[in-house]
Amino acid sequence: MSSYIHGTDPIEQARLSKLNELINARCIALMPVKAGDKILDVGSGLGQFTHQLAQLTGPTGACLGIERDQHQLAVAAHLSKNHPWLEFRLANAESLELHESERGLFDGAHARFILEHVQQPNKIVHSMFRAVRPGGWAVLADDDHPGLVLFPEPEGFQSLWRAYMQSYERLGNDPNIGRKLVALLYHEGFRQIRNDIVFFGDNAGTDTFQALAQNLIGIITGAREVMIRERLIESTDLDASIHHLQTWSRLPDAAMWYTINWAIGFRPAT
pLDDT (tens digit, 9 = 90+) per residue, 169-215? Predict the structure, then answer.
């Protein structure tokens, strides 16, 4: 069983909701969804992105969000009230127990920020392959954590970020999954694969920088318990590094460079 490193408390839910507001438009711009499509969203979380996919399919299509966390599912359910073609379902992405009639039904499947939190991401991609029709597509979007660059670099940040990445590994998850998306698609049978990136950085002086900087601080502090328990960093060093990170976020020339790795593949038509 995989472990979600950040937990599901109200602070984490608020962080995720704000993150959706910041990046969903950039991700939607890459999606090949059209009116009438049937879309599967694996690991749908709070449902905000799934809801936007459903707006693209319209009432002539259908959109199903799969989520294993009941707290997130309860929030997502409110988004489907006025959209009868949008459904959220409690299920585990790693087993993806679709109804027999749903296998091979979907025009497209999507998974974002989920493969980094599971021990066997290939199982999810395999299930997505079985879920889409011949000629259908799957989109994977996920982090590749070593690519994060902050400038000017806050004191202690390298040690802090290394401990954060190691916390994934201690839970059996993969902080480097983003670079493997093309390979995952290929080895599970998808073809006509292409990759891209979604810019996930920002700089001081924009309307969104503080929100993205606080998101970064939030994901690190959310993993504090794991990092301390696994002795990846001393608590005093962690707290000092977070303090330096907060100071960095207030600099007039602060910049963050980061991307979400993105890939699409198609199930062969024959």
Answer: 999 999 999 999 999 999 999 999 999 999 999 999 999 999 999 99
Kindly provide the residue ranges of all beta strands, DSSP E only, lying in the chain, ordered along the sequence: 38-42, 62-67, 86-90, 106-112, 132-143, 149-151, 191-199, 202-203, 255-257, 259-266
CA 138 to chain CA mean position, Å: 14
According to the model, what pLDDT value does residue 42 have?
Answer: 97
Could you check whether the bond before residue 152 is cis, i.e. omega within 30 degrees of 0?
Answer: yes
The model's pLDDT over 221-236, given as tens digits with 9 standing for 90+, comes to 999 999 999 999 999 9
pTM for this structure?
0.93
- Residue 242, CA distances (Å) to 160, 245, 259 in order: 8, 5, 22
Q: Return the closest-CA partner of residue 188 out of 118, 249, 138.
A: 138
Q: How far apart are CA 139 and CA 31, in angstroms?
A: 8
